[in-house]
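Cross-posting from the modeling subforum.

Setting up a comparison between two proteins and wanted a second pair of eyes on the formatting. Protein 1 (sequence, then structure tokens):
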Amino acid sequence: MPFTTTVITGATSGIGKETAMALAKKDHAVYMLVRDMKRGEELRQEIIAATKNKNVYVLKCDLADMESVRDAAGILKASLMAVNILINNAGGIFAERQESKDGYEMTFAVNHLSHFLLVNNLLPLLQKGQARIINVSSEAHRMAKPNFNDLQWLKRPYSAWKAYGTAKLFNIYFTRSLAIKYGPKGISAFALHPGLVNTGFGIGLTGIGKILMWLARPFMISAESGAQTSIYLASAIRIDAKSGKYFKNRHVASPSAQATNETGRNRLWDLSMEMIKPFKDQ
């Protein structure tokens, strides 16, 4: 494979860490966007020691802070000629409603809007690299009930799982929109479900959410197994014809009927573009 430049969010633990390690073994130049620089540097040294690949880098990027996302994209644009793979891996579920630094509901901000900004600000590099954009979604998207008049969960009781499921639905919407809008410019996009992975995901949940996670624990797969579809999409040959699709276990799968809603998909794009305006490069 030719020299490949890969950018990944959420690489310091779980499937992100396994994905970064595996792609470094495949001689990708890996740029990890992390919130905790100490953990990021420790992981960088671990990956270099394990893979002998010295092209592993760490950049500060807090997905709950849109200025931080904009700054990280700016550093990449000043440092690189092109990006070939962008893996929007980071995400989270929050037991109580929280707000990001910019006042957005945290689940929406971290799982969707920050990655939406990152992609838009990296578009020149992504087009030059004929990039694959890989969005880590979830089967949780099937429980989504999006309310485009209340994306911030201010007018209705907050539900951690419904907010998370909606954000994961938005990952699929975003993927399809990218495939349609930028496919003619050489960019492909894929969404995936990694599986029910045994990581620290959901550790802060309380009540029924905590009980459900505890009951599911014996059926969970390892982070290494959960990373396999991300690794496949980042390294497989000749999959561009499947751009815009949703994957499970390295194969195309059918998402929910709601995930194919063109009106909702276009509404999300328009609202997201409006929200990122203060942080979007011109």
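Protein 2 (same layout):
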Amino acid sequence: MAHRFLMDGPEDAGITLLLAHGAGAPMDSAAMSASAGALAAAGLRVARFEFDYMAARRQSGARKPPPRAETLEGEYHAAIEALGTAGPLVIGGKSMGGRVASMIADDLHAKGRIAGLLCLGYPFHPIGKPAQLRTAHLAEMRTPALIAQGTRDLFGTREEVATYALSPRIEILWLEDGDHDLKPRKAVSGFSAADHLATLAAAVSAWASRLNA
């Protein structure tokens, strides 16, 4: 399937982010659009794409379960080739999209193909199954990585993640009271969704500038 990209941000940006969607929502979901907009406003070039199963949903309307993350690695590689970025590239995505990117990152980084990995709400484990960790490859990760995670994300809370063995190459940006979409409850935390998006954009921009130094 030919890749269709949603592009945001300046064409002459120093770094391009390639982001895939989560398991259940498309590349133009409210959460992904908000994140892409904030990152683009911070001066980053953002490209979003969909895996074939999600693109097929647009055609058929049928909501088949997503395939296993491991089976999507080839599609992510194909998206990188189709994008054809000349400058520094950071791969990643929301939830499952970021997980798929994390599974191919080290090989690409070792070959000089990517500068880093960005995950927006990493699914450290399935909801309600904290023992089924998806972290084995993260312990030895060599790619510079930034994970933006809400402190009350049901796929991995701050308290849970603190117990995991993660590579020192991985930085985690904790967003207070954020859920899996990084959204806080303002009445509880005092932060709005816009506040967290601004924090996310500033943190990613600063982190990306270090990659490009």
